[in-house]
């Protein structure tokens, strides 16, 4: 598809859906499989993971700057994102990579501390605005539609000093920041994502190993989630009421959904899998995408009961006001879905301890099968069928919303002949194809994570997800296309998955 039409197609798809086009052939394994016209292909990155220039041109410190500088021991290879892929200085070069891939869209995030060094909107850093304007202009020149994430984990440190996402005022501050983005970029950006993977940065950041490094699972993670949901609702309503008529456009949120399959067919394991889905995906999906709104009933009941048993005078999961429930319910034009892998779930055996935790509340055991192919990330095994199940779960439980797959990808060892990555993408795309054209899921596009190798959070540079390999030891941070780049170019340009893999030395074993 000619990428010049992509924005129009995405708009069209968002309003009318694209699942009913000519899907090509039905036989998914042996023949050519095509996506309908209008199905878009893109790649994703995030500011902290690629930009570098951490203290340049007025940018202030983010929680990831602070965390990597003060706790190198918590980063696998003791690295930081200070330089990362140097994308701050490589606007033209990076957009060229996308052009070579023949992509319709590029999903990237804007850095809050680069735009508002104080975290607050009383001072806007013009150099930050200039940088993103330059990137947007370059994308436009190359007919690539921008898909912009407002928050991909790099909170200004000065706001973390006020408690970060555990502080209810953050919802207002986020709305102020969002207003600055909409005022400055609303004309060029028509597809907005408020947050990327809130479970990851709330659970990981306030109860786990990620920045800012809070160790308050079962407490601050829920506070974070509560304020992020309120912030999303506020920004969506603001966009809807004030900006849509001015600029048009669409807004959603990206939620990660690993498929959670019962380990056995027993009633206990089936219940455990559903509980796990509700605590994971439902935590953020239910308040926004369900008919009733609010937290999933199972989360409400379990956390209220556990809190009481632990002697707390109130639930560790805060309550929304009826107005807030209403504000969040239906606050989307599309769902951004990140999907990488699948887990098997069994009933847990945890006791309610005085020291609460998210894990104790969920109370399930999860694992992956030994014979599922491994990757270079310990949490990620190759399980393509889970993608179709996850998409169908969304279709059946959340009234078949329009879904943009905002991330799917895999890490493997360095090297250009990445046939395993080709294999992964191809298998996951076949699963996605079946979900759309056999089952009726409304998916409007697919985003590969990531355009190039980048800073993989606490794993540093040790896990590589890129279609382009980045040579971190070269002064230029040279990007070189892998075999998977060639494969993905073919897919993006033709809209079809090839049935002849000779070019990719593909093996189905
Ligand atoms: C999820 C995150 O959004 C992204 O930042 C990360 O690099 C990928 N998944 C791979 O782990």
Automatic annotation (TrEMBL):
<dbReference type="InterPro" id="IPR001360">
    <property type="entry name" value="Glyco_hydro_1"/>
</dbReference>
<dbReference type="Pfam" id="PF00232">
    <property type="entry name" value="Glyco_hydro_1"/>
</dbReference>
<feature type="signal peptide">
    <location>
        <begin position="1"/>
        <end position="20"/>
    </location>
</feature>
<dbReference type="GO" id="GO:0005975">
    <property type="term" value="P:carbohydrate metabolic process"/>
</dbReference>
<keyword id="KW-0325">Glycoprotein</keyword>
<comment type="subunit">
    <text>Homodimer.</text>
</comment>
<keyword id="KW-0326">Glycosidase</keyword>
<comment type="similarity">
    <text>Belongs to the glycosyl hydrolase 1 family.</text>
</comment>
<dbReference type="InterPro" id="IPR033132">
    <property type="entry name" value="GH_1_N_CS"/>
</dbReference>
<feature type="active site" description="Nucleophile">
    <location>
        <position position="407"/>
    </location>
</feature>
<keyword id="KW-0732">Signal</keyword>
<dbReference type="GO" id="GO:0008422">
    <property type="term" value="F:beta-glucosidase activity"/>
</dbReference>
<dbReference type="InterPro" id="IPR017853">
    <property type="entry name" value="GH"/>
</dbReference>
<dbReference type="InterPro" id="IPR018120">
    <property type="entry name" value="Glyco_hydro_1_AS"/>
</dbReference>
<protein>
    <recommendedName>
        <fullName>beta-glucosidase</fullName>
        <ecNumber>3.2.1.21</ecNumber>
    </recommendedName>
</protein>
<keyword id="KW-0378">Hydrolase</keyword>
């Amino acid at each position: 598809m000619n990428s010049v039409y992509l924005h129009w197609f995405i708009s069209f798809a968002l309003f009318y859906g694209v699942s009913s086009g000519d899907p090509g052939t039905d036989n998914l394994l042996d023949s050519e499989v095509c996506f309908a016209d209008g199905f878009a292909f893109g790649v994703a990155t995030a500011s902290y993971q690629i930009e570098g220039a951490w203290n340049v041109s007025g940018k202030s410190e983010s929680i990831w700057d602070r965390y990597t500088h003060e706790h190198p021991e918590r980063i696998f290879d003791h690295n930081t994102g200070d330089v990362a892929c140097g994308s701050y200085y490589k606007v033209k070069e990076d957009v060229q990579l996308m052009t070579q891939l023949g992509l319709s869209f590029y999903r990237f995030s804007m850095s809050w501390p680069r735009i508002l060094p104080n975290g607050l909107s009383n001072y806007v850093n013009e150099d930050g605005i200039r940088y993103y304007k330059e990137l947007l202009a370059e994308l436009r020149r190359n007919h690539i539609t921008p898909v912009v994430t407002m928050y991909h984990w790099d909170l200004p440190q000065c706001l973390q000093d006020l408690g970060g996402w555990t502080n209810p005022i953050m919802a207002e501050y986020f709305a102020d920041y969002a207003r600055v983005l909409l005022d400055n970029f609303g004309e060029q950006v028509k597809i907005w994502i408020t947050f990327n993977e809130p479970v990851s940065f709330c659970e990981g950041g306030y109860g786990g190993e990620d920045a800012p490094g809070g160790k308050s699972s079962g407490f601050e993670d829920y506070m974070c989630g509560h304020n992020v949901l309120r912030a999303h609702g506020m920004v969506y309503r603001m966009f809807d009421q004030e900006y849509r008529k001015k600029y048009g456009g669409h807004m959603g949120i990206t939620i990660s959904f690993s498929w959670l399959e019962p380990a056995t067919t027993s009633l206990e394991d089936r219940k455990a899998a559903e509980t796990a889905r509700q605590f994971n995906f439902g935590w953020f999906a239910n308040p926004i995408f369900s008919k009733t709104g609010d937290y999933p009933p199972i989360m409400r009941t379990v956390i209220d009961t556990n809190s009481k048993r632990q002697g707390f005078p109130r639930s560790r999961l805060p309550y929304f006001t009826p107005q807030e429930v209403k504000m969040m319910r239906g606050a989307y034009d599309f769902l951004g879905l990140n999907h990488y892998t699948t887990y098997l779930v069994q009933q847990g055996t945890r006791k309610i301890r005085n020291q609460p935790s998210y894990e104790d509340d969920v109370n399930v055991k999860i694992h992956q099968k030994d014979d599922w192919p491994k990757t270079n990330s310990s949490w990620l095994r190759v399980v393509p069928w889970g993608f179709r199940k996850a998409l169908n779960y969304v279709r059946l439980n959340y009234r078949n919303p329009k879904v943009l797959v905002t991330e799917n990808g895999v890490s493997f060892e360095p090297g250009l002949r990445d046939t395993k990555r080709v294999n992964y993408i191809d298998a996951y795309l076949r699963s996605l194809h079946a979900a759309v054209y056999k089952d009726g899921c409304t998916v409007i596009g697919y985003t590969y994570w990531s355009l190039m190798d980048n800073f993989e959070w606490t794993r540093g540079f040790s896990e590589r997800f890129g279609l382009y390999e980045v040579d971190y030891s070269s002064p230029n941070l040279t990007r070189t296309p892998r075999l998977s780049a060639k494969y993905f170019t073919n897919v993006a340009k033709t809209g079809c998955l090839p049935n002849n893999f000779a070019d990719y030395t593909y093996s189905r074993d």
